[in-house]
Amino acid sequence: MKANEIKKGAAIEVDGQTILVKQLQVQSPSSRSGSTLYKVRGQNVVSRQKFERSFKGDEAVNSVDLIRRPVQLLYKDGDGVTFMDSESYEQYILSEDSIEEELKYIAEGLEGMLALITDEVILGIELPTTVVLEITECAPGMKGASASARTKPATLSTGLVVQVPEYLEVGEVIKVNTDSADYISRA
């Protein structure tokens, strides 16, 4: 596969290491003769070390076959975070460090999560595009607040902080984009 075909959530092999792609940034050339660069940020699935490298669009990259299985959160404890396969009831344990970013969006009963598995080993969790979370802390809502672009920070039930319109209040349930951590709408 070529570097311009890499997608977020894919697994690639670089220098004998399997890398789970967590972010992808496309940098257009600044001159006519330049080539588009694909900046890949991810994590080594064995050592859990962060990985970052830029590839030219036509550069060859080895892809790793991933199996995606529907899972749900069972519990968190000292060993890590335990997920259960929604169909086979098999359990997978991941360390909190390895899914630190994803945990900000995972609340009890979240539907639509997928476990990324290769060679019987769980690599990570793929979140749905949007999640619904409750506001647990924010400044009081303003009665005369217009629907203008004025926002305030709000802490959600998972600890994630997002900017929300100033008319929202504690206890309201909102929809959040998991790629950008942006407020979308009331749920």
TrEMBL record:
GO terms for cellular component: cytosol. Keywords: Elongation factor, Protein biosynthesis. Transmembrane segments: none annotated. GO terms for biological process: peptide biosynthetic process. Residues 131-186 form the Elongation factor P C-terminal domain. It comes from the Bacteria. The keyword tRNA-binding does not apply. Residues 68-122 form the Translation elongation factor P/YeiP central domain. InterPro entries: Elong-fact-P_C, NA-bd_OB-fold, Rib_uL2_dom2, Transl_elong_fac_P/YeiP, Transl_elong_KOW-like, Transl_elong_p-like_YeiP, Transl_elong_P/YeiP_cen, Transl_elong_P/YeiP_CS. GO terms for molecular function: translation elongation factor activity. Belongs to the elongation factor P family. HAMAP family: EFP (MF_00646). PANTHER family: ELONGATION FACTOR P, TRANSLATION ELONGATION FACTOR KOW-LIKE DOMAIN-CONTAINING PROTEIN. This is Elongation factor P-like protein.
